[in-house]
Amino acid sequence: MSSKPLLHSRILHRQFNSFFVPKARPLPYGSQNRHALNARLSSSTATNDDSEETIHYDILESVESIWGYCPGGYHPLTLGELLHDRYRVIHKLGYGSSSTVWLARDEQSDQNVALKVGESKRRTSEVDIITALGRSQSNFFNVSGEMMIPTVLDTFKIRGPNGVHPCYVTTTCGPSLRDLKGEWSADLFQIDVARALAAQLVLAVELVHAQGIVHGDIHLGNILLHNRPNFNKLPVKQIYKRFRKPQLQVVSRADGRPNPRGVPSHLVTPIWLGKACERITLAEARIQLIDFGDYHNGLDYMECSLWNSSTPECRFEKPKPPSFPSDVWAMACTIWEIIANFTLFEKYSYCADDITRDNVEVLGMLPPEWWSAWGARAESYREDGTPIKKNEIRTWEARFENSIQKPRNKRGMPLIGAREREAIFNMLRPMLKYRPEDRCTTRQVLESEWMVQWALPEYEKAKRLPWKSLR
Fold first, then answer.
1. Which residues neighbour 342 within 8 Å (Cβ) at sequence distance 6 or greater?
2. Which residue positions does the secretion signal occupy (predicted)?
């Protein structure tokens, strides 16, 4: 056995594969620094004669990677383009590592819709899964009578210079919780909103699990807020006036030569449909769980969690498919982020040892066989689990104070009481058991004290609140 724990590269190099990810805002400080240090982007693009050349592009911000525009990759859509003789592209909603998502006007129904265009190489059963879930239970409906998962309105394929691309159409949604909280989750929801959002997340995952489906990629970027009731009927001019016209960024090669075939001349900055995180009201706390593209049937391995919330078994055991327990682990990390202004496991690191060290700080010693296999353990811990440098350990309780109580106090928000704090701990601990077979189920999470006494009552209250239309 290797002295280093196993960490699959899929976890570390996977971008957010979210339906609507970035917004037209300045990038986080760390990203700005990286862009300042790297004034050029490099990409390897296949040319028409199938040879490979390295092409350098001028840096662009808050848009998808230009690397994705290659044979097998993204389709180069343009604003104003008509797809399937029906859907007029009017803006961009977002992008992920395997798709771009556009705001389009359905010229048959005269309504706005979301149009997801996948990479041509991407083979996914997402549409079939969403369709099956939509048929399964009326229980998926949330507070406003809309689904907690997308409703597929249409599917088709388009052919372009980079291949044949799967497309599907859904009703539109607003920003993701990741967008609202910022890349580092630094912003805070009001506590009643956070409770209602967490309750709906658990309800949605429980309903998905009840159909025998593993989501496989639960994080803030895959939880969207619904748009206001009349957004889909807004005329295009009104959308541009209220939310800003599309902003184009020129795609240019550093050497001044023409872009390769299949690379667009411009990229579109995604529209921002949200507002400040703390201004989201309880009436607006209506979610949709998205991105079932990484669901898989157990025949092959794919670890989809973001690196700092990746499950410990993916580092110490043979590759396994995502599972109900891995969803529960990811859901625990996501609930913490909904409440807090930072992640529970704080190491934004590409190093497996850093992630494991962070897990141990919060949850204690690993199971014996993993503890023995962790080659870097001696750098931080003695054999019996005692930390070598106690002053560097950030316990569960310390993280609660620093990521929840202090930021809320600083912003003049109500603090979480001692009883509720203990209820949160008592809910999350069984969700974060090291061994997947020891973790609780989503049904047991719903039956926890915090869900019953705090989160679900706020969700019930949200159902009774009126939701204003856009004017």
1. 184, 185, 186, 399, 402, 403
2. none
Determine what percent of the chain is predicted with pLDDT higher than 70: 82
Whether the Cβ atoms of residue 145 and residue 104 lie closer than 8 Å to each other: no
Over the stretch 275-286, which tens digit does the pLDDT of each residue have? 999 999 999 999
Binding residues: 116
Provide the pLDDT for residue 141.
Answer: 53
**Tokens representing residue 53 in the block:** 């050349």
Contact 57, 75 (CB under 8 A): no
Query: Above 80 in pLDDT, residue 184?
Result: no
pLDDT at 191 over 50: yes
List the binding residues for ATP.
Answer: 116
Domains of the chain: residue spans and CATH:
9-463 (1.10.510.10)
Q: Two tokens at 94?
A: 């977002």
In the predicted structure, residue 23 carries a pLDDT above the cut 50: no
pTM of the model: 0.85
The CA dihedral of 18, 153, 118, 96, to the nearest 10 degrees, is: -10
Q: What is the dihedral sign for C-alpha 333, 338, 344, 349?
A: positive
DSSP for residue 88:
E
Task: Give the separation between CA 395 and CA 401, rounded to whole angstroms.
Answer: 10
